[in-house]
Amino acid sequence: MMAEIAVVPVGVRLTTDIEYRPDRLNPYRARVRWFDPATKRRLSLSEGKADEDEAQEWLQSIIEAAEAGLSPSLATMKLAEYGNANMDLALRGLELKTLDPYLSGWRMRVVPALGHLAVRMITNGAVDRTVQNWIADELSRSTVKNTIAVLVRVMEQAVRDGIIKVNPARVTGWQKLYKQAEDELLDPRALALPDWETLVALADALVAASHDEYRGWGEVVIFAACTAARIGEISGCRVGDIDTTQWIWTVRRQTTPAPGGLTDKGTKGKRARKVPIVEEIRPLVAQRILSAGPNPDARLFTGPRGGRISTAVLRDATHWDDVVTKLGYEHLRRHDLRHTALTWFADAGVQVHVLRRIAGHGSLTTTQRYLHPDVHKITAAGAALSAHFTALRAPRSLPSPIVMTR
Questions:
Q1: Which helix (H) or strand (E) holds 286?
Q2: SS3 content of the chain, % helix, strand, coil (to 5)
Q3: Please, what is the angle between helix 215-227 and helix 336-347, to 10°?
Q4: Of the candidates 87, 63, 64, 62, which has an alpha carbon nearest to the alpha carbon of residue 76?
Q5: Of 345, 355, 320, 323, which is closest to residue 334 (Cα–Cα)?
Q6: How does pLDDT run along the chain (406 residues), one tens digit per residue?
Q7: What is the rounded CA–CA span in Å between residue 360 and residue 77?
Q8: Which of 3, 61, 72 is nearest to 35 (CA)?
Q9: CA angle 333, 336, 339 (to 5 degrees)
Q10: N or C: which end of the chain has fewer CB within 10 A?
Q11: d(Cα 148, Cα 391) in Å, to the nearest integer?
């Protein structure tokens, strides 16, 4: 299909079309072409979309941007590209001591999380969820503050350039979210699912709510709740990482957002760790290995079209928020599957130093939060007895000598 739209404000005539290419992962290619008034060159932009409606929406966004006086190239510019090109303007007036933490926040957190999105496509909701993820990753309060600050400045520059009308990075209430996250981390057991039956019911409900009822989403959920792994680590799992003789998974990598889409990198803390695969999920894992084929680098878990998965992909594909609310677990997030596994391991009597290795925690204090309260009482009783023994062994002062007087 082909259509022509005259864009009066900038005097540019856009030509748009949508081409269907059935052999592609995103088969609907939306394309816009125009003549640059300054260079007289014919330019074009295109993006592949999953369906025709998405392609039409993309074209409509280009048309609306052109009507507002923006060239198609500027209207589709990704945040990473825009920020890097305009960082000096965005950060003008800052002291040198402030630049380093701002630039670090941009490079290490903003770009991986949001850099692949067009500036015009970044919403307040997207920023809000991203900030929540930073908090859930246990970043310090000052780190989160500096990271939000640099994002706010870049998006404010986009407002001045006329790319967007309102700055979506001016999120409020994140300090309250930070306090809530801190409270949850003090009692992660409260976030765990109660039992195996509840986990299976959750997995089945998520599958039922997904497009074409893709069984893989339920398998990801069950696997996460039995291995204490993050969703990104599950996405990064390869067939060769699974030892089916001893039934141990060596966690080596994770899938994370990056400019241009999802990418794989080392695990949090950059340390590989070994996780047991319990009997209940071994048939599931064996079937996934069989389906993946003989290539040891094949992914154990993928989306329905073979792509990488992330916590956001899982949420959107399964209508997670709606499903967990209907089941009475409206507080439940994807990361809480990890809390579930660690709680279950602790209740099964796994020693705390072993649990720490399974979780990949840097601090033993973090791991101890998963222990049952009764265990804390027993530990405290042991500490009290040790203190008593210490007091008994302490040298007593000798009595004063008796002085005889006449």
A1: helix 282-292
A2: 55, 15, 35
A3: 50
A4: 62
A5: 320
A6: 433 333 333 456 778 889 898 888 889 988 888 777 777 788 888 888 888 888 888 888 778 777 767 777 777 889 999 999 999 999 998 888 889 999 999 998 999 889 988 898 899 888 988 887 787 666 778 888 999 999 999 999 999 988 888 999 998 777 776 666 666 666 788 889 999 999 999 999 999 999 999 999 999 999 999 999 999 999 999 999 999 999 999 999 988 766 556 778 877 666 889 999 999 999 999 999 999 999 999 999 999 999 999 888 899 899 999 999 999 998 888 989 999 999 999 999 899 999 999 998 888 888 888 887 776 667 777 777 888 777 777 666 555 555 555 5
A7: 38
A8: 72
A9: 170
A10: C
A11: 53
What contacts 250, CB < 8 A, 6 or more positions away? 241, 243, 272, 273, 274, 275
Q: Is 93 exposed, middle or buried (0-12, 13-18, 19+ CB in 10 A)?
A: exposed
CA distances from 249 to 64, 227, 239, 252 (A): 50, 9, 9, 9
Distance CA(22)–CA(284), nearest Å, equals 31
Reading the block at residue 186, the tokens are 């003090």
| Tokens coding 33 | 């072409």
Residue-level length of the chain: 406
Structure tokens at 397: 């002062």
